[in-house]
Amino acid sequence: MRRLALYSLLLALASIGALDTFAHAGEVHNYMGTVAAVNGDGSFTLQKTDGTTMQVAVSASTAYLHADGKAASRADLTTGKRVVATISKDGKTASTIKLARQAR
């Protein structure tokens, strides 16, 4: 019985590790955080909720949206804004940037 429990635990841990390993291979991901800096080309530094930062590239096809789903523009993306960036399969270019509603 102990051996079965041990094998089950090892299999579960291996499965979790395998899922984590493949989670970033060519998949679309969402990152939430605060815009730390905006560059001249529209790319920006995102400070994620875990405190780490990442560079987010944009393209002509990047869609900007307000929290209510209405269209926003690149000019609405400013330092200090809270956003959710959907990163395309290339792992660096945002396909959609959703801007959070400002606190009242």
Structure description:
- The structure is a single chain.
- The chain is of the alpha+beta class and 104 residues long.
- 20% of the residues lie in helices and 34% in strands.
- The protein is built from one helix and six strands.
- The chain has one helix at 2-22; strands spanning 29-38, 44-48, 53-56, 63-66, 82-87, 94-99.
- The radius of gyration is 18 Å and the shape is elongated.
- The protein starts with a helix and ends in a 5-residue tail after the last strand.
How would the blueprint of this fold be written?
Blueprint (H helix, E strand, L loop, with lengths): L1 H21 L6 E10 L5 E5 L4 E4 L6 E4 L15 E6 L6 E6 L5
Parallel strand pairs: 4-6
Antiparallel strand pairs: 1-2, 1-5, 2-3, 5-6
Task: Explain briefly what this protein structure is.
The chain is α+β, with helices and mostly antiparallel strands and 104 residues long.
